[in-house]
TrEMBL record:
<keyword id="KW-0732">Signal</keyword>
<dbReference type="InterPro" id="IPR012854">
    <property type="entry name" value="Cu_amine_oxidase-like_N"/>
</dbReference>
<dbReference type="Pfam" id="PF07833">
    <property type="entry name" value="Cu_amine_oxidN1"/>
</dbReference>
<protein>
    <submittedName>
        <fullName>Copper amine oxidase N-terminal domain-containing protein</fullName>
    </submittedName>
</protein>
<feature type="domain" description="Copper amine oxidase-like N-terminal">
    <location>
        <begin position="45"/>
        <end position="138"/>
    </location>
</feature>
<dbReference type="InterPro" id="IPR036582">
    <property type="entry name" value="Mao_N_sf"/>
</dbReference>
<feature type="signal peptide">
    <location>
        <begin position="1"/>
        <end position="25"/>
    </location>
</feature>
Amino acid sequence: MKKKVAASLLLTVALSSTLLGSSFASSPSYKVSRSGSSTSYDGQVVSGRVLIPVKAIQSFNGIKMNWNSTNKQLKLQKGDSTVLLTAGKSVAIVNNKSVSLDVPVTIINGRTLVPIRFVSEALNYNVELNSLTKLITISDRANSVLTENYKSDNLAISRIAALQFPIHNSGLPMLTADDEGLNTTYYFPEGKSDRYFIQTADLVYYYEIKSGQAKLMWEANLDTTKKSASKDITQLFGYQIDKQYGSAPQLSKRYVFFNVDLFTHMVQYGFANSDGQMSVLGSQQSSAQVIQNKNFVREIDEEQPIGS
């Protein structure tokens, strides 16, 4: 049975006419880019939906694409997701299930165009539209394995998955460190895995897990020549803020921290109070590969569990 695509799967653009043939060139256009890439492609509105050339899909990481010119079928694969589209047909096959389309694959002036939001979300990408700049940004989301691990009741497994989620910078500028960072400290609120801080050198980043991504919500440059003197977020990190972007979160009462020495690969872990007082519970020798994969996170016996 054919399943109607939810309205959220298709990018609605307010248009009053169907844009085909010669009108295609003059219809409103959008720029489509991959998050973190400087390359963009022209997206075009057809019947109120944004379509992009097939060649743009080829630039997505991990995509396998096959075009059958005989039956005009496009097959897209990413991990365990498969999408089969046929030019001129308003039905797609997603993981062996029929799904209705508002706009089919369209061939105009020799170019094959596909609906960007439908294809992206079917292949587990996140889609964001800035209606003012007419920019559509495509970014990675966590795969099914990471998503299941993140749901685990085991805090260590859930936190490792959270640290492995694709990062989305949320449009915040890229800060650069004034000091060389030989240590990186990760802070999770006690009993939680859905948000965390990363402090390295004089930089602090705050992320929240949303829509299959670790979204950067706040970042700051610390002034390491000035000790924190206020009862605010600076107490946790010990120094005053030189500059910051985004919205600083409310502090939790206590955090679990993992301090990673990037030179010796030694990991210390323990508790950090919101006033900056830290108590080390233990340490463990790690390796470069373990640190890279964030597998240094461990369970803390004294910690309260999720949901408490």
